[in-house]
Amino acid sequence: METRVKETNSRRVVDEFIIPKCSSKAFIVKKGQVLRVIAHEGKQVADIRFLNAHDYREQFGAYQSISLNSNESIGGWKKIRKLYSKPPWQRVMLTVIDDKVGDHLFGAQCTPKWNEIIGQPGHLSCADLFDECLKPYHLSMRDLDSAGVFNVFMPVRFLDDENGKMVFQRPSCNKGDYIDFLAEMDVLIAATSCPNDGIINNYEPKAMRYQIFE
User: Fold this and answer.
1) Per-residue pLDDT reduced to its tens digit, 119-160
2) In 123-162, which positions are buried (b, 16+ CB within 10 angstroms) versus exposed (e)?
3) What's the distance, CA 147 to chain centroid?
4) Which residues contact residue 71 at a Cβ distance below 8 angstroms, ignoring those fewer than 6 apart?
5) What is the dihedral of CA 120, 140, 78, 40, to 10 degrees?
């Protein structure tokens, strides 16, 4: 899609595009720009990775972010506010400035092996999609932190029993819901429209819409 520039409230949309279902895209968001992720077709999820655009070793650290946000006045497991990079950097990469849902998962993704273990060998995975979209940047899953994923609109619940089983639920969003990230540095984004055809995507993979504002 060609870059389009238009006014939206006090910000300009400098780029917008749709990542079709079961596919992915990598792109740059510059410091000071805002990335909006929109539930384009209803209940759906996206797996997103954030890397320092100038040093790919510095990547979003999901577990560090959960812990550090729990020490903030606003933030925590579901409604995260600041996205920190993994150690040794532990810098704020992005700040969530608007979140219409506030119910997400962090640090998980489907992989070929994961699909095999759950009885779906050969099913397309988000790991496959990350590999594909990051090829132009000479990156693959081997270069990525295993827990460096933001699972947008993907809610889970932990059963109150002795095992604390994690249960996936239908996506927490409705059509048109969104989350806004303010880039605190130049960030390489890798995003997938999750191919899971179970409850994670309300039993139907869907496209996700993205806008970049400045």
Assistant:
1) 999 999 999 999 999 999 999 999 999 889 999 999 998 887
2) bbbbbbbbbbbbeeeebebeebbebbbbbbbbbbeeeeee
3) 12
4) none
5) -80
